[in-house]
Amino acid sequence: MNNNIQDKLNAIIKSKAKQNRTLANGVTEEELTEFKTVCLAELSDEIPEGYAQFLRLHNGMTIEGVFIYSTQRLPISGSSGKTLAFVEINQFSRDLEGMN
């Protein structure tokens, strides 16, 4: 992950901490391998390495209208909402495209 992105991520983490909120923990290598397998099977594509690097740190993020999809739907700290799952959202998007 490049330094600019890491700096922005650190600022987000500090901001959330002031609100007594946190970002989701990262995935394990086993979880990441399983997720990559599901992506290949369900979406016929591999995830970018930069996204995999982010998932190792935080399994998704929702902040100020920005969504970085998680490997599965997870509770959002300090909210009743849940994160958006990468495969689920991509399948939904593909279904919508097919309706045109």
Secondary structure layout:
Blueprint: H1 3-18, H2 29-43, H3 49-57, E1 61-63, E2 66-68, H4 86-98
Q: What is the compact description of this entry?
A:
It comes from Pseudomonas syringae pv. apii. The chain has 100 residues and is mainly alpha-helical.
Structural notes for this entry:
- This is SMI1/KNR4 family protein.
- There is one protein chain.
- The chain is mostly helical.
- It has one domain.
- Helix content is 53%, strand content 6%.
- It has 4 helices and 2 strands; from the N terminus they run H-H-H-E-E-H.
- It has helices at residues 3-18, 29-43, 49-57, 86-98; strands spanning 61-63, 66-68.
- Strands 1-2 form a two-stranded antiparallel sheet.
- The radius of gyration is 14 Å and the shape is globular.
- The model has no long low-confidence stretch (mean pLDDT 90).
The ordered string of helix (H) and strand (E) elements is: HHHEEH
Radius of gyration: 14 Å
User: Are there runs of 5+ residues with pLDDT below 50, and where?
Assistant: none
Mean pLDDT: 90
Number of strands: 2
Count of helix runs: 4
Helix percent reads 40-55%
Q: In percent terms, what proportion of residues is strand?
A: 5-15%
Number of domains: 1
Biggest β-sheet: count, sense, barrel? 2 strands, antiparallel
Compute the separation of the termini in Å: 37 Å
Strand order of the largest sheet: 1-2
Structural class: mainly alpha
Q: What's the oligomerization state?
A: single chain
- How does the overall form come out from the CA principal axes? globular
Protein name: SMI1/KNR4 family protein
InterPro entries: Knr4/Smi1-like_sf
Organism: Pseudomonas syringae pv. apii
